Structures are given as C-alpha cells and as structure tokens.
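Worked problem 6 (solution included).
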Amino acid sequence: MKTIALIQARMGSTRLPGKVLKKIKGRSLIEIMLNRLEKSKMIDKIIVASSIENNNDNLEQHVKDLGYYCYRGSENDVLDRFYKAIKNDRCDYVIRLTADCPLIDPHIVDKVVEKFFSGKYDYATNTLMKSADDESQLAQESLN
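Solution. The predicted structure is:
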C-alpha cells in the first residue's frame, strides 16, 4: 500500500500573504512542516500541491530546493489540483494536509493512519476528538 501526504500550499493567503515562506529561526514554515512529516512512518511520499498563479513561483522553487515535489494546478478547483497531483503515483491512500499547520505532529499523523487502516473506513480525521489521551503525549521538537 502506498500512502501520499498531500500538502495544500499557496502564497495568496488574504490574512497573511506568503505565510508558508515566512521564517522561524531561519527555516520557512513549509520547511518545518516537511521536515516533521518526514518523521512519519506511515507516509511513503510527500507532495506539495500549489496553484499555477505566478505568486507561487518562489514556493515551488523553495520546495524543490528542499528536495520535494511541488505540483502546480488550478487556483480555484482544489479537488482537481489534488487529483492531478497524485494521479500518476498510483497511491492507495491520501493524507490531506494544509501548509498553515507547520507544527504538525508526525506521531499523531501515524496514529490517525493506523486507526484508519484498522477498520473499514472511507475517511479519518483528528479534528472531531482530541488527538492524544493526554496533552503531555504530544511530541515536541525544538525549532533550533
């Protein structure tokens, strides 16, 4: 089984334009997120899905410089962008993530995927219930 993490990212945020390339201690938010997702045991490939708008050129180059694939598709049809980003990879499962969550916990991603695999589910999320039994179980990573 092949599982792809698909990160929805673009530079055109209305509240904080360019936020995915903003830096914390010298690392962009998308870089922090990608590095954290690399620690997941359940993800086989990571794809950043952005739009064809020119303001995403720097994002695409940055993602490529970090060694990841960036697909560029429709600005408005996000489902089509996602479909085209993964259609040639013959994956079995897709984990949809948004780039405005750079401190994602790879252990929680793995728990959600494991729970999904353990049953006959069409969809899994960790937004309906607390992700961990105890907040102290959440993994922490220094941004140094």
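Discussion: Residues 106-118 form the longest helix (13 residues).
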